[in-house]
Amino acid sequence: MTGGTMKMLLFLFWGFLFSAVSQAQEIPTAPSRGQPWPMPMSYKAGGQLNTIDAATFRFATQGNDCDILREAYIRYREAAFKQHSERLLVVGPLRFRQNNLRFMQQLRGQENALLQQLSVQVSTPCEGRIYPSLESDESYALDVSGGQATLKAQEVWGALWGLETFVQLVYTTNSGEFVVNDTSITDKPRFVHRGMLLDTGRHFLPKRTLLQNLDAMAQNKLNVFHWHIVDDPSFPYESRAFPELSNKGSFYPGSHIYTPSDIQEIIEFARLRGIRVMAEFDTPGHARSWEEGQKGFLSECYSGGTRNGMYGPADPTKNSTFTFLKEFFTEVASVFPDQYIHVGGDEVNFTCWQSNPAVGDFMQKMGFGDNYAKLEEYYMQNLLDIINSLGRGYMIWQEVIDNGAKVREDTVVMVWKGGWQKEMANVTKQGYHTLLSSCWYLNLITYGEDWKTFYTCDPHAFDGTDAQKSLVMGGELAMWGEYVDDTNVLPLSWPRGSAVAERLWSPQDVNSPVLAEPRLVEQRCRMVRRGIPAQPISGAGGCPEEFGGN
Amino acid sequence: MVEGSRKMVSLLFVLSLFSALSAAKLSVTPTKGVPWPMPMDYKTTGKQNTVDAASFRFTTRSVECDILLDAYVRYREAIFGRNADRFHAMRQSPKFVQMFSQEGDIGEVSVDVSKPCQGSYPSLESDESYSLSVANGQVMISAQEVWGALWGLETFVQLVYKSDTGEYVVNDTIISDKPRFAHRGLLLDTSRHFLSTRILLRNLDAMAQNKLNVFHWHIVDDQSFPYESMAFPELSNKGSYFPESQVYTPTDVAEVIEFARLRGIRVVAEFDSPGHTQSWGLGQKGFLTECYSGEKPDGSYGPADPTLNTTFPFLKQFFAEVASVFPDQYIHLGGDEVSFTCWQSNPVIKDFMQKMSYGTNYAKLEGYYMQNLLDIINSLKRGYIIWQEVIDNGAKVRPDTVVEVWKGGWEEEMEKVTKQGYKTLLASCWYLNDISYGSDWTTYYTCDPQKFNGTDAQKALVMGGELAMWGEYVDDTNVLSRLWPRASAVAERLWSPKDVNFPLVAQPRLIEQRCRMIRRGIPAEPVTGPGTCPVEYREP
């Protein structure tokens, strides 16, 4: 579909919306029906309907088959039909029979074409535990017309997104039939890295919730789970080499930890949905909980010449520090298959280092003078060499660069502070790849429709050359954990996270909140129906199926 | 307990808080077995009594009734968990007793209520006071009325905690308690978004855990009309979002009221008019004023039409039904945010204004509508609560009217309303739907409803207050986590003595309350920064 067709379609939404608004004040936004979220690159839909018989419909692999596809078929069959059909049964057998009757009549009358299967063609073999990466081809093409439906993709990752889109196109008519409009879609993401950060260091999030959140991410085509797994308050990652880290550093070692098998399950669950799991082990700051199980890792702070019992950042003056880090990150690299490890590096406070005489001696010896940023650089450089030797790429928070540390040229710098436009210009000028997070701190809640602010922040909206812009790999929404745990993380993340997801997937000019709103309302209700407690974000209204718990 | 000893207890909290902070572990250490809201008088020692789970039971000393019997079942579960009864049975098997024969100190809790309570319904005049003593393995709860006994049971359950060795224990404690305010309300709005009955019931449980005693049910509004009326079924057939699934049937409403009654909670229904009534117009044609553009109706509607002779007969019949469905002594009639522009555009209204000699003062027309409505409620022998605008616009109302203050500048408003001799409720400080980042509960906690210029007699007219969770951005997915434990802050303000008002002192207790609520099935969100609960929330 050309830009023009998309604009025409948007124009239709526009008119629909306004007719609803003028009716009366505060009338709920009418949701779209069977429209995908995020908006595909090119999307053409006609009024001709294809009817689906849920009992006989099937996904049919043409060519390459694999575990990822087979698992996806099971999930997407349920997503498309299960709760819909339960609803029909709930409202009573009579109505169900009537629907069935009408359905059969329509079949005989040939009013709509009958869509019996979606044929799925993947060009590259996908068997054998393949794992998604920054280089994955996520493009796909989907055609539904005259009772025929075809999904084509180069790689299985594109096929997964195509299946998600197809299921979003299915909706129920007023008489309860499953239908899909004739549709032609060619789609690929604008950015390759579309991430979501969850923080399991400040509050623990059970595995079950992390899995549910991965499902929600897949429903929005987000493809990187950035797992900020440990932080100052707790260390829930269970290390095989250093079990004391979680024994001593987690809130409750009996229940509030991630065991190796938990982590395996999360990575596999994500892989089957085309989602990478990128672990962050933040140092040298934000590492208070490490000290509980790894004595001597942190710098001891001094008051007036004596230790005061407090701890600062990791202690870069000791050889044992880097020996430990090497062994620890070797394990991390064996546990997390992703090509990147996030090594943090944010908010390193120098006051404790400044108070410690041994650190002072080391500064002199190294000729750092009073410049503690050099000490930080020294620490980071050693750490990055370790990650390098493990054959992994690394992501870092912007401070590492801001403080002038030299890092490998393929480093990805995550920008999270205010003034991000300048920072992105600066970082890309130095030739680094970058990710934007500043606009999307979803934990910072405000009253009302803040998704519109998230939606209209464009990661390319900074001064720079085309070459600089092309270094932007995407962005991440962050749900930091100070005020978030299992009780509220999913409703606070969704569908506010969906706004970011569309920004990172869809073309740059799909950026009007007014046009997006009816589709976002549909997306929220669809997520609720599929078991995600996505909260209301566009004022008063109702979903046909309300959230009923898990 | 005297004032002094409570202050000492507070001081101990402060000390324990600071020692926790200095110990480098970043989270504040929660209290163990300390109640929320803080009782009027609370004296406790470190002497522990173990609870004998095998023999544990509640015993009624004198007056018995449905309310007590139901509470015993609930509170047993609240202490020992969902499988309490199975566990109880197992504990009594001879083999188990042989293996773990460990006598606890507390085998029973005696409950002594003075007045008969079978089938009773709470009111503004309910006596909610109680006394509770735990000493030498003896536990006694005494109350004049069953409502006090319910709160005493809630307090007792909050005193129980698990010792380091995993036993259920209660410290020696003496409590004498009663609420500071008689009306401690929570407003839910089921019109902007529908809330399922299941969620309303769970919220009532959460309210009881915080000794809130009025569920203000803002049941209908512009956006939808989920109340299923027996006399006017078209109201919800046409006015609800989904008439098959998103309505409150008479059975649903009765269930909510009974569930609340058993917890000492009143259900005050609000049917807001003449504004906020767009959804009424869908099922009750002719109820709303037609708005005009130029000479012709433009298809939109304004407030209820006070000029038609059908409006008040309809309201009389409708509210007669409401009064038969909701047993509470009060009905909330709304009366807020009436926009005059539609009335001003309508020629019939203009004629009526002339006929009544109102000139162009549409507040008088609003007063006329409200006066007629109040007369109807009066004839049904119910009291009424109204939003402040009715008074602001100068309508005359019955002297026993309760005026709910919700706008900014509430101090002046409360002063004005009480000067006119009306009873009043404060809501302005507690719009919990209006979220912001961080620990906003401290703001709610430090707003005092009697902090306005006025005589003691004026202050005495403050019946309490209500927290509000308006529904624009709230539904089943987030209402409970958004309410709790932020609403607990309001609950303590309305129950506890005025000088229990220091957030830093309250914080360790609030953390315990949050974790206790989670253990009892309420998804109460974190409100004090990083930390944890021993038992995390599970969707039931």
UniProtKB/TrEMBL annotation, chain A:
Gene3D superfamilies for this protein: Chitobiase/beta-hexosaminidase domain 2-like (3.30.379.10), Glycosidases (3.20.20.80)
EC top class, as a word: hydrolase
Keywords: Disulfide bond, Glycoprotein, Glycosidase, Hydrolase, Signal
Domain Glycoside hydrolase family 20 catalytic: 191-507
GO MF term set: beta-N-acetylhexosaminidase activity
Transmembrane segments: none
Catalysed reactions listed for this entry: Hydrolysis of terminal non-reducing N-acetyl-D-hexosamine residues in N-acetyl-beta-D-hexosaminides
Intrachain S-S bonds: C66-C126, C301-C352, C525-C543
Keyword Nucleus: no
Superkingdom assignment: Eukaryota
GO annotations of cellular component type: lysosome; membrane
Pfam family, one: Glycohydro_20b2
Domain Beta-hexosaminidase eukaryotic type N-terminal: 36-169
GO biological process: carbohydrate metabolic process; ganglioside catabolic process; glycosaminoglycan metabolic process
Lipoprotein keyword on record: no
Signal peptide region: 1-24
EC annotation from Swiss-Prot or TrEMBL: 3.2.1.52
Catalytic-site annotation from UniProt: E347
Family note: Belongs to the glycosyl hydrolase 20 family.
Protein's UniProt name: Beta-hexosaminidase
Source organism per UniProt: Littorina saxatilis
UniProtKB/TrEMBL annotation, chain B:
A GO MF label: beta-N-acetylhexosaminidase activity
Catalytic function, reaction form: Hydrolysis of terminal non-reducing N-acetyl-D-hexosamine residues in N-acetyl-beta-D-hexosaminides
Keyword GTP-binding carried by entry: no
Disulfide pattern: C65-C117, C291-C342, C515-C533
Glycoprotein as UniProt keyword: yes
Keyword tags: Disulfide bond, Glycoprotein, Glycosidase, Hydrolase, Signal
Residue positions of the active site: E337
Any one GO cellular component localisation term in the record: membrane
BP term (GO), one: ganglioside catabolic process
Origin superkingdom: Eukaryota
EC number assigned by the record: 3.2.1.52
Domain Beta-hexosaminidase eukaryotic type N-terminal intervals: 35-159
Signal peptide segment: 1-23
Enzyme class: hydrolase
Record domain Glycoside hydrolase family 20 catalytic: where: 181-497
Annotated family: Belongs to the glycosyl hydrolase 20 family.
Protein known as: Beta-hexosaminidase
